[in-house]
Each structure stands twice: as structure tokens, then as C-alpha cells.
Specification:
- The chain is mostly beta strands.
- 3% of the residues lie in helices and 23% in strands.
- It contains 1 helix and 29 strands.
- It has a 7-stranded parallel β-sheet, with no helix packed on it.
- Strand 1 and strand 2 form a beta hairpin.
- The longest helix has 13 residues.
- It is elongated.
Length: 422
């Protein structure tokens, strides 16, 4: 007898009908409200059931493979079992699955890894009690391609995992629940999202989170977000408008790099740092940085041929010569620049390849203008601050529209050829 029981236990464990506690599990097929037959396992001891697989689809073609997960099932003995889990790999490679709606499964907490890893799946609605979503929810291997178009994130989990929608180039709509506070790196990268409604409680947008979403047109960053990761929205070719929330302090490097339709940015009032390449190759025409900004990275506004007016904020600590330039022989077409800030020097050759500059407002903090800074520009008037001490060599050479110059009393050095060929 003992030997027989051991053999049965081994057999049931092998085919998945043994619980971790060694209790033999029962199983049953139950049709959902659409007529799809689902296979469940349960122990009969704790009133819980696990959805294990899809047995057959509905005879109604319009409902076939469109699963609706119930809150509970009833076995042949009229015992009720609450649905709490979808087994790992439950629908993996099942080409009959079209959609799955868990919104009615109010006690479903667990959706196992690879449970939804099938290329036929088009729509997912997660249930309100789901405690976590796996990075491997949909993807089994790097060779998989899946074709989800819509996902609704209900549940108690707070984060969308890194690369969650890798290989999902068809995703057009996502509904993010109010519980979401973090979107991890590359979570939606390369999808076809057209609209993005970020929840008010969101605090973090990871690196490359929405990079390459070339159908996305408008982004509003909620007021609780504190950082926008590197490359977060890079190469979003259709993105035209961005509103940055008032809690954002850091805009990461390349955050909006190569968003070639981006022409309108509303700046949050807490931004302290703008990373390298952050807005390179956009089509902004005017930028007025908020006074909270302290650092502006290399090439942050480079390659913007449409940019005509730029105003630095009052707390910028330093500026480098490559904020606007994208390397040698890259022309830009600024007409007006206002130099507010804490920095005291305008860098050497700051406006190289910018022959269109007509107006410059120098802040009272400027004590030094380096060599060739404004050489060859279309400046008509220049008012130097009283605290200016030095004017570098060729600083204003070949400014052939300049008519009047008044050198302040504190200037001790005028460099060679400073105003030559004016």
C-alpha cells in the first residue's frame, strides 16, 4: 500500500497535480462567459483555484479565444474555489488566445512568468488584485514577436518592469492604473503608442522608457515625477508637444534627442539639470529656461536650425561652447540670446557657425568675453555690463553691422583685433 501511494505521488507530481505541501490536487474544466473552456486545478482544502490552460475555444467565432476570467469557479461537488493564480506558461504558444480580461477576477494576485507568451494575443486587462507583473510575462525568448495592441494595468503593483514590451511593435494603447509610480528602462521602447496618459502618482520615468515610440504626439509629465531618464523619449519622431511637471529636477542625457517634430516645450519650475544632447535635433524656436536650472549639458540644444531665441535662467552656474553646436561646420541660426546666470565668462568661439545673431543681452555677472566669441555676427548694438574686465582677441571681429561700442571703466584688457573689420 505504501509503495502504491509513493508511485501515485510521483506520478501526480510529474504531471503537475501535486501541491508544494504534497496534497493531491483536483482539476476541472469550466467554460467562461464567452464559452471558452478553461482548465483549473484546486486542492479542495483552501478554496483556491489556479488557471492552468485553455482547453478549447468558444463555438462563437466572435468570442473564440477571448477569455473572461471569473472571480471563482464551482466544482462538481458544488464547492466554490476562488481564482487566485494563473499558472506560469499557462497560455504560452497557444495560438488560440486573442484576449484575456481579468478585471472580474477580484482575488487573482499572481500571473506566472510566460503565462501570456503567445504571438496571437491582442489585448490584456489585468485584474485589480494582481500584485506584480513579470518582465517575462509575454516574452519567452529574444526571438519572439508578439502583437499586443492594448493593455490595461489594474492591480496593486507600482512598477512597469524594464523592457516589458520588447518585441511588441504593435502596441497602440496602454491604460496605466493610478497605482503606478515607476516606469522602468525601455518599458515601452519601440511601441506604436499614440497617446500617453501618465498617472498623477508617477515619480520616475526610466532610461529609454519610451524611446522610438514614433507615433507618440503629446506628452504631459505629471507634477510628482522627479526625473526623466536618459533617452526616455529619444527618437519619438512624431512628438510635437511636451509639458514637464513642476517636480522634475533632472532631464537626463538625450531625453528628447532626435525628436524631430518637437516644437513646443513647457518647462517645469524645479528643473536643475539638463543633460547632454537632451534636446538635440528638435525644432524648438524659442527657449526660456526657468530660473531653477543650474547646469546645461554639452550639445543640449545642438543641431536645432529652427532655434532663434534663447534665454538662460538666473541660476545657471556655467556654460560650455558646445551647447548649440554639434561639432565643426554645423550651422545654427540664433538671432537673440540673453545671458542670465552665475557664470562670469562667455566661452571662446561660443557662436561659431552662427552668422545670424543680431541681439545679445549680457547679464551683470559677465566679467570676461573670450576670444572670437561674437566674431562675424550681425550684432547691431552691444551693451557691456559695468563689471566687465576683459574682451578677448577677435571677440567682435567682422561684426559689420555693429555701429557703436562703449567700453566700461572696469575693462583692463582689449585683445588683439577685438573689433577689427567692423
Amino acid at each position: 500500500m505504501k509503495t502504491t501511494r509513493l508511485l501515485l505521488t510521483y506520478l501526480f507530481a510529474t504531471i503537475g497535480l501535486l501541491t508544494p505541501n504534497g496534497i493531491l490536487a483536483d482539476e476541472i474544466d469550466v467554460a467562461d462567459s464567452n464559452g471558452n473552456v478553461l482548465h483549473y486545478t484546486f486542492t479542495g482544502t483552501d478554496g483556491s483555484a489556479t488557471l492552468a490552460s485553455l482547453t478549447s475555444v468558444s463555438a462563437d467565432a466572435a468570442k473564440a479565444g477571448r477569455l473572461i476570467i471569473p472571480a471563482s469557479i464551482t466544482d462538481t461537488d458544488e464547492n466554490v474555489h476562488v481564482v487566485r493564480e494563473i499558472k506560469a506558461s499557462a497560455f504560452q504558444n497557444n495560438s488560440s488566445l486573442v484576449s484575456i480580461d481579468m478585471s472580474g477576477a477580484t482575488s487573482l494576485t499572481t500571473v506566472g512568468s510566460y503565462a501570456l507568451a503567445t504571438s496571437s494575443l491582442r489585448e490584456v486587462v489585468f485584474g485589480p488584485a494582481v500584485v506584480a507583473v513579470s518582465a517575462n510575462q509575454f516574452k519567452y525568448s529574444t526571438n519572439d514577436n508578439f502583437y499586443l495592441t492594448r493593455v490595461v494595468f489594474n492591480g496593486t503593483y507600482t512598477s512597469i518592469p524594464s523592457s516589458f514590451f520588447s518585441y511588441c511593435s504593435s502596441l497602440k494603447e496602454v491604460v496605466l492604473g493610478d497605482q503606478i509610480t515607476s516606469i522602468e528602462s525601455s518599458a515601452f521602447s519601440g511601441t506604436k503608442l499614440r497617446e500617453l496618459n501618465l498617472p498623477a502618482g508617477l515619480t520616475n520615468i526610466g532610461n529609454s522608457a519610451f524611446s522610438g515610440c514614433d507615433s507618440l504626439r503629446t506628452v504631459v509629465i505629471p507634477d510628482n515625477v522627479t526625473s526623466i531618464g536618459s533617452g526616455a523619449f529619444s527618437s519619438c519622431d512624431s512628438l510635437k508637444s511636451v509639458v514637464i511637471g513642476n517636480a522634475v529636477t533632472t532631464i537626463g542625457s538625450s531625453a528628447f534627442n532626435e525628436c524631430r517634430a518637437l516644437k513646443d516645450v513647457t518647462w517645469g519650475q524645479s528643473i536643475t539639470s539638463i543633460g547632454d544632447y537632451a534636446f538635440r535635433y528638435t525644432i524648438l524656436s524659442k527657449v526660456v529656461l526657468p530660473n531653477s536650472v543650474q547646469t546645461v549639458g554639452n550639445y543640449a540644444f545642438a543641431g536645432i536650425n529652427s532655434l532663434e531665441e534663447f534665454e538662460f535662467g538666473e541660476n545657471v552656474q556655467s556654460i560650455n561652447r558646445y551647447i548649440f553646436q554639434n561639432g565643426s561646420y554645423t550651422y545654427f541660426y540664433l538671432k537673440r540670446v540673453v545671458f542670465n546666470g552665475k557664470y562670469t565668462s562667455i566661452p571662446e568661439s561660443f557662436f561659431s557657425y552662427c552668422s545670424t545673431l543680431e541681439e545679445v543681452v549680457l547679464g551683470d555677472q559677465i566679467t570676461s568675453i573670450e576670444s572670437s566669441t561674437f566674431s562675424g555676427k550681425k550684432i547691431r548694438e552691444i551693451t557691456f555690463p559695468e563689471g566687465l574686465l576683459s574682451i578677448g582677441s577677435s571677440a567682435f571681429s567682422n561684426c559689420d553691422s555693429l555701429r557703436t561700442v562703449v567700453i566700461p571703466d572696469n575693462v583692463t584688457c582689449i585683445g588683439s583685433s577685438a573689433f577689427s573689420s567692423c
